Each structure stands twice: as C-alpha cells, then as structure tokens.
Amino acid sequence: MSRIIAGAAGGTPLVSVPGSLTRPTTDRVKEALFSRLDAFGVIADARVLDLYAGSGALGVESGSRGASSVDLVESDGKASSVCQRNADLVNGAVGRKAVTVHRSRVEPFLERTAEDTHWDLVFLDPPYPLDEVAVSAVLAKLAPHLAPSAVVVVERSSRSPEPGWPAGLERFAERKYGETKLWFAEPSVPDAIVPCVEAMA
I want to staple 83 with a disulfide (CB 3.0 to 4.6 A). Which of 35, 50, 56, 197 is the partner? Predict the structure, then answer.
C-alpha cells in the first residue's frame, strides 16, 4: 500500500484507485523524486499542480511537506473521488484546505486557467497511450503558467522517448528508476540580445 512519506501527514496510507485505471508512482520512485525536489528547495510554500493526478499521490505528498496550495487535475470519476479522499487526509493533517481537486481533462483545465495563475512545481504523469505529440501540446499550454523558477517533472515509461519541449521550457535533468523515467524541466531564459557593434558605431 502506498503512503505519504513525510511531512504533516507522513506515514498515512493513501487510498488507491481501484483496478488498473491509473499507473501509480511507486514509493521508491516517489521517495527519490522528493529527495531531489527537497534539494532543489522547491516544495515549501510552493504552488503545486498535479496533472493526470490518478490517486493524487504526488500532489498530496507536496501538500504534506508544506506546499502552500496544490491543484489535483483528474478526469476519471473514480480516480477523482480517490483524489478527494487523499486530499481530505492531508487537509486534515495540515489544518487547512491546502489541496483542491478538479475533475477535468487536462487541456480544458489549462485553457480556462487565468492568465495570472502561475505554478512553482508541476507533476505531469500522462497515461502511456498518450503520444509524444499530445504530451508536447500539453506542455505548450502549461508553459505560460509557470513561475520563473518553476520545476516541471514529467514521468513516463523508461521506453518512452524524451518529451518534445515547447518554446519556453527546457530540460535540465533526467533520472531512470527501473521502468520509470523522470525528466526535469524549467522555464527557458531567452538569449540576451547583444547589440551589434556596427550598429552602435
């Protein structure tokens, strides 16, 4: 049984999505991932977005560890109900509504998000049948909603190719854990415009 690893709700068992509707992140991968995110210093007080949330395990882990807000986005009815139950566990432990569940498909959710909404940490664990073109399209919709120092974590099968990074987003690290591969990306900084010497003469 998966559990919340650390923070206010550390040790609390998570409710799992019944059947094979989702592909949950193993506790081993989750522990390695959050150890890395702790080293980056991006969890405490972060605004977190968990897309294709499944049971919400990554998002609620962030909430338990001190994220200021967490949005779980999941379109399946059974899975979103599980997300809500896990969100309630963390909200109760931290004493406030840190985690909010949105029953929605990812693309429409991002399309109707206000322009001034920005997240500091984003988890993207799309179902394996979603091809790389579709994943890249989601990343393109996400890019305008990232804080300048945001971290995006894309989780895929280790046999999947690297996502196609859209303009405004670039990979800075990757890690493989058995059958799981994680890509870490951040907002890209446009190349500085260097004035032409001739133009300045």
Answer: 56
- pLDDT per residue as tens digits for the range 43-89: 999 999 999 999 999 999 999 999 999 999 999 999 999 999 999 99
Cα 135 to Cα 130: distance, rounded to the nearest angstrom: 7
Strands 119-124 and 47-51, sheet pairing: parallel
Helix (H, G, I), strand (E, B) or coil at 95: coil
Given CATH 3.40.50.300, say whether it is the number of domain 27-189. Answer: no
Cβ burial of 167 (10 Å; 0-12, 13-18, 19+) is: exposed
80: helix, strand or coil:
helix
